[in-house]
Amino acid sequence: MAITIAIASGKGGTGKTTTSANLSVALTKFGKDVIVLDLDIAMANLELVMGLDGKSITLNDVLAGRADIMDAIYDGPNGVKVVPAGISLDAFRKAKPERLADVLTKLYGMCDIMILDCPAGIGKEALTAISAAEHLILLVNPEISSISDALKVVAISKRFETNILGAIINRASLEDTELSSKAIETILEVPILGIIPEDPNIRRSAAFGEPIVLKYPDSPASQAIMQIAAKLTGKE
Ligand code: ADP
Ligand code: MG
Fold first, then answer.
1. Please, are residues 10 and 121 in contact by the beta-carbon 8 Å criterion?
2. Which CATH number is correct for 3-232, 3.30.559.30, 1.10.150.450, 3.10.180.10, 3.40.50.300?
3. Interface predicted TM-score (ipTM) over 0.90
4. Residue owning the nearest CA to atom 4 of ligand 1
């Protein structure tokens, strides 16, 4: 049986999609069978980062009740399976997020880990994703607005009894205006799973539609993501 891990944040643009894509690939490097799903069904980006855009059948079609989830799973980099959300507005309008739990149930036997790339905030789609996941990782930037918004996700996760594995601090740049890892841990009251530095190779690899952990494996962000994958698989 697979475990499900939602990658969530309060604030938008913290790096959920980048991290979901790369952590999924990193976990495959540790021998795990991984399915990554784009649950940001309104603003689907995962397929772009993974070089899988333009697929005909997507999660939105499945949530609209007009396709089977088995037909919306695509082979991505390094053996990771990818379920894109698609950019069709028509499919998005007809999608019913409440169908998600059933969709996930069908995938449980097919992999070791499901990574759910969530929408930001605590709107309906984010709540559906958080409530459907067993575990959750908070994706934050080292600034107070990101942390205060993350606190709302912590509260929601507790209400849904979704287990918070910890927080990943993304876009760290050693500036003295940044909140320290210790301060973030104290405010959120969750362990810090890793710190991903600001790294121009993230944007560069996204432009190529290739995860940074494959395109630039020696870059600082890739090394940080591999360390987080090692921690999650107990191979640290
Ligand atoms: P979200 O899914 O939370 O909205 P994304 O993963 O789409 O966030 O990231 C938002 C933007 O920030 C993207 O352009 C991405 O390339 C960039 N980005 C994310 N993490 C980093 C990083 N560590 N260093 C540099 N740019 C980053
Ligand atoms: Mg995103």
1. yes
2. 3.40.50.300
3. yes
4. 13
